[in-house]
Amino acid sequence: MNELYPMKFRPVFKEKIWGGMKIKTVLGLDYAPLPNCGEVWALSGVEDNNSEVANGFLEGNELNELVEVYMGDLVGDAVYEKFGIEFPILIKFIDANDYLSIQVHPDDELAAKRKIGYGKSEMWYILQADEKAELITGFNQKVNKESYIKHLQHKTLRQILNVEKVKKDEVYYIPAGRVHALGPGLLLAEIQQTSDTTYRIYDWDRLDDKGNPRQLHVEEALDAIDFEVYDNYKTNYPHTLNKTVNVVETPFFTTNVLQLDKKLEKNYEELDSFVIFVCIQGKGELHYGSEKLDFKKGEVVLLPANISKIQLLPLEEIKLLEVYII
Predict the structure, then answer these.
(1) How far apart are CA 173 and CA 212, in angstroms?
(2) Distance CA 237, CA 239 (A)
């Protein structure tokens, strides 16, 4: 069997009612012929949306097929033992040209109870934000189920939701159970558990292209919602050059930011997991053994678990999200 190597993947583009043009104009990915591309699934093991390898001798193979063949060598023994052949992380780029629906995701416990796979906790890294861009995350006051339902019925839900003014390079962690919605003028990278379960609570009375309201999941959402109020909904982190900066650490994924203007050596011998690099700025090279792989903004690289020593070499200043499971 040939040796594994760092892999890039063919992006899958999704037309969305709220999508725009930034995936092409800002991120540099050509999604023709879609007029309103809202999402790019850059690395996915979701059934019917399996990512295909774009480089090397495994080109054309689907991600979950590779997990089945290479098992722990690809994803790490502990990861394979827990998740089997389903790749456990989904990476997206999202262009919100309008408000997304107000929604919530179930946690692992509720998802298991409803036999819908895993729950969905996620994080957003803001790549670009228009002036006055905003998003919704959590509640801004103490709410119980009854008062929440009353606001929903009276279409005053926004009054009790926490609205954040958003800037480039900010991070928001959205644990399962937190009510949320992206607002217009945002381009971001999303890192999430492998799940496509979304409970849509309110969709701004919007109609689809056939003139019908989009399906809501009001009842299903009730048991999923965390009604607590939190002091801070934004994830603060230091902006440090040429260091590994930890941003989010959860049972579902760990995400670090690497902003580099010189070579950085990485050693993953103690890590029993794959590593994903999401390039969000610049271009560079990943060196492993005597080989190298070029990458640039908008590309995602999957480093197999059995490659432990690499070098990241910026060809211009680069910024990467480094994602793995502990």
Answers:
(1) 32
(2) 7
Which CATH number is associated with domain 244-324? 2.60.120.10
CA dihedral 181, 186, 192, 195 (to 10 degrees): 60
Q: Taking the domains of the chain in order of start, what are their residue ranges? A: 7-222, 244-324
For residue 62, give the DSSP letter: B
Contact 102, 155 (CB under 8 A): no
Q: Annotated catalytic residue: which of 10, 158, 200, 214?
A: 200
**pTM of whole model > 0.85?**
yes
Q: Look up 200 and say whether it is catalytic.
A: yes
pLDDT tier for residue 1 given thresholds of 50, 70 and 90: low
The hierarchical CATH code for the domain 7-222 is: 2.60.120.10
300: closest CA among 275, 283, 319, 279?
279
DSSP element (H, E) containing 291: strand 291-296
Angstrom distances, CA of residue 193 to CA of 214, 221, 283? 24, 18, 27
Would 7-222 and 244-324 be classified into the same CATH topology?
A: yes
For residue 183, the number of C-alpha atoms closer than 13 Å in the C-beta half-sphere is: 17
The pLDDT tens digits for 66-94 are 999 999 999 999 999 999 999 999 999 99
Question: What are the strands of the beta sheet with 283-288, ordered from one edge?
Answer: 264-267, 309-314, 283-288, 291-296
- Neighbouring C-beta atoms of residue 248, cutoff 10 Å: 22
Please write the tens of the pLDDT for every residue from 241-284. 999 999 999 999 999 999 999 999 999 999 999 999 999 999 99
Number of Cβ atoms within 10 Å of the Cβ of 168: 13
Residue type, 187: L
Tens of pLDDT along 96-155?
Answer: 999 999 999 999 999 999 999 999 999 999 999 999 999 999 999 999 999 999 999 999
317/102 Cα distance (integer angstroms): 36
